[in-house]
Amino acid sequence: MSGWPSGLRRYVQVVVSSGGVGSNPTSDKKTDLDSVPDQCNRKWQTRSSLRTVWKTQLSVPTQFYTMSSYTLTYFPVKGRCGALKMMLADNGQQLKENLVSIEDWMKGDLKGSCLFGQLPKLEDGDLVLYQSNAMLRHLGRKHDAYGKTVCEASRIDMMNDSVEDLRLKYIKMIYQEYDTGKEAYCKDLPNHLKPFECILSKSKSGFLVGEKISFADYNLFDLLLNHKTLCSTCLDAFPALKSYVDKIAARPKVKALLECESFKKLPINGNGKQ
Ligand code: GTS
């Protein structure tokens, strides 16, 4: 475990007590929300050992997307699922969320049922996936966010692997050495941002690879938002990264998700550090 229990437990208690778990047993029914502005629809229900706390429903007219039955099981944090949610939102996809409290997780049954003993878990019809980067790739393939050619796909993989390298450093600092290591981490951060700045400053499209946004872009964007929270000035020396973040944040459906209360109130990390 990444070391998040206490902060997460506090958060779960707040969510559960304020919403009344189990108060809406019929909430499993999917509905189309074809009109904006309110993109989020909070629903509550008890579901075996899980607690379904909210669904993000998206506002694109249904003729523009194929309805998939994505279900995400995860803790009540943005954590490793921010990018995935942004990609689904941007593609007008519905996502049903099973939010798992730390108390339920500690019981062990769910952990025991997970292939690698960890969450997130993504279900797409009969397909069950673990590993957040495999999920991003799967969604990238399905929603045309994995490049136009084999070479583009390989470069997208390369970029995503570099995002993962930085995410792992970030997670280590957050969960293991926040108090003692944050300053050194922020000081060293420019060295890790520089390659991305270099790529983006040469990019004609403004994305990491090719002409279109890819799953690696959502992943980098999500991680850059985390870093802006960690250190508000961290992009000041990186104009390409700065305009990249602004540009993705301004995509209407990404913007709507970022402004959605249910999404906003999720902590970035499970230990309350950010
Ligand atoms: N490589 C995995 C992925 O990318 O999905 C890592 C998943 C992971 O670390 N999950 C943590 C977990 O299940 C939660 S979080 O770090 O993503 O917030 N921890 C609980 C446990 O028992 O290990």
UniProtKB/TrEMBL annotation:
InterPro entries: Glutathione-S-Trfase_C-like, Glutathione-S-Trfase_C_sf, Glutathione_S-Trfase, Glutathione_S-Trfase_N, GST_C, GST_pi, GST_superfamily, Thioredoxin-like_sf. CDD domains: GST_C_Pi, GST_N_Pi. PROSITE patterns: GST_CTER (PS50405), GST_NTER (PS50404). Keywords: Transferase. It is an enzyme of class 2 (transferase). Residues 68-147 form the GST N-terminal domain. It comes from the Eukaryota. Its EC number is 2.5.1.18. Residues 149-268 form the GST C-terminal domain. The keyword Transferase applies. PANTHER family: GLUTATHIONE S-TRANSFERASE. Homodimer. Belongs to the GST superfamily. Pi family. This is glutathione transferase. It comes from Cirrhinus molitorella.
